[in-house]
Hints:
The chain is an alpha/beta fold. The chain contains 15 helices and eight strands. The chain has helices spanning 4-32, 36-60, 71-96, 104-131, 146-153, 189-194, 205-212, 223-230, 235-270, 315-322, 331-336, 349-358, 375-379, 386-402, 405-420; strands at residues 134-139, 160-165, 178-182, 202-204, 276-282, 288-294, 340-342, 371-373. Strand 7 (340-342), helix 12 (349-358) and strand 8 (371-373) form a beta-alpha-beta unit. Helix 1 (4-32) packs antiparallel against helix 2 (36-60) and helix 1 (4-32) runs antiparallel to helix 4. The two termini are 35 Å apart.
Amino acid sequence: MISSYKIYRLLLFLGDIFLGIFSLFIVIVLKFGFSLNYFNLHLKYFSVVLLFFVFIGFLLKIFSPEKNFNQKEFLKKNLIAFLLSLVFSFIYFYLFVRTISPKTNLILFWLIFVTLSIYTKRKFAQYFYHHRQINLILFGSKKQFLRLINDLNNNPQLGFKVFILKDYEKIAKVPNPKLIILPPKFNPQKLINEYQQYLLNSMSVLNFYEQVFEYLPLDYLTEKDILTITAKERKIYFGIKRVVDIIFGFLLFLIFILLFPFISLGILLSSPGPIFFKQKRIGQNEKEITILKFRTLHQEKQNVWITQEEKEIFPLGKFLRKFHLDELPQSILILKGDLSLIGPRPEQTAIVQKLKKEIPYYSLRHLIKPGLTGWAQINIGKIPDIEGTKRKLEYDLFYLKNQNLFFDFVIIFNTLRAIFEFSKHF
């Protein structure tokens, strides 16, 4: 049932490819008349540009109708994809293509394609919201599903109509399409023995969150679920990830070296004190590590959360924090192996001891190396309180369970996008 999301995404993906080819066809007809030779020649090179666009679009989730209900967010993501693709297309044609040199044609292509693509995806998103409805049966008591009910109410664009049932016999009365959500610690024996017809339309509440919301809610985690999060062997992945860390760490180190004289001088002129800030934090396997950053506060603080509104932050410090330039010295820790590029953000030692007592399963985030950025960082950002930390942990656990190289690339891409958009998450 949830797999229908993938079908809708595939339709939008293929739709944009078709619209791209159709837009190119219109451009050729307007410019050269009906000529298959010109069309085939241009298609050979424009296909590269089109593939780049759909790749960026996939990273930005513009092919996910359930993500496109917010019009402002929808337009912003699409325009980012088009602008990046436009820049790429100019670089590609003027540096690597000699057979054709489109100028007016390239601009005309993007104008037609942008118009058709945005209009089509927006209409599809509206159709998706108004006509696609899945009847969601929460099998159990309302008390067991309070968190889910609240999250669904906050996301009406997902298109779920909720039924709360306790009786198997009443399931048949709910019209199709329907999906049955089972509570934590549910005993499936009766479902397996007497109501097998509902098995294929059933899933645990945790799996539902994982597929729809892309995080693992602490409210529904059980000890058995923890094993599914931590059981996978990923030796090859971690080996490749270390190579990627070294490459990116070296690039960040070069930027650090280039900017070091200017940032150091700026800090010394802005505020008396050391250039760097050191702090003990918890790394992989509860190992204590020392992070290194450019100092951004007049008087650095220990064992407390710092917000962007902190009065002690001097003006240059705010600039460094906004663009995350204060993090550049941590490239040394990446090269050393204490940090990874992607992973849960490391927390202060004293605060970790408190969080472990107040938040269940908090220590699980220490099974992997902490990172400069992560899945929680781009979705939640910095929330300096217990409840915010719980929410971040839910995203960290999702990453822990689903980590792979492509997922890492998605996080890197969205981190860069968030930084340049001055996202509140950062």
